[in-house]
Specification:
Keywords: Membrane, Transmembrane, Transmembrane helix
Protein name: Interferon-induced transmembrane protein 3
Pfam families: CD225
Number of strands: 0
Distance between the termini: 100 Å
Subcellular location: Membrane
Number of helices: 4
Main location: membrane
Structural class: mainly alpha
Length: 111
């Protein structure tokens, strides 16, 4: 038997006339702000019409920097701009790819 167990057995459980109180600690959960860095990097490397992918990547990095500092409002603003630029870069990249396939086929069929 350990020394502490022996003392509890001999002395008994502590008797405290005061009521037990509990304390609740509210831990604020961090708001997740997507910074779209991977999407921006993809658009920069593969679909970069009018440098929209590179500009979106710049805004994504700025969003990540603001998030690391703790400025969630600034991070959300930069992330929103990066998302919009990524959408436009993706749409224009897909359209340009389709046109680069369709136009030569139409020219080839004309001859």
């Amino acid at each position: 038997m350990l020394k502490e167990e022996h003392e509890v057995a001999v002395l008994g459980a502590p008797h405290n006339p005061a009521p037990l109180t509990s304390t609740m600690i509210h831990i604020r959960s961090e708001t997740s702000v997507p910074d779209h860095v991977v999407w921006s990097l993809f658009n920069t490397l593969f679909m970069n019409p009018c440098c929209l992918g590179f500009i979106a990547f710049t805004y994504s990095v700025k969003s990540r920097d603001r998030k690391m500092v703790g400025n969630l409002t600034g991070a959300q603003a930069y992330a929103s701009t990066a998302k919009c630029l990524n959408i436009w870069a993706l749409i224009l990249g897909i359209l340009m790819t389709i046109l680069l396939i369709v136009i030569p086929v139409l020219i080839f069929q004309a001859y």
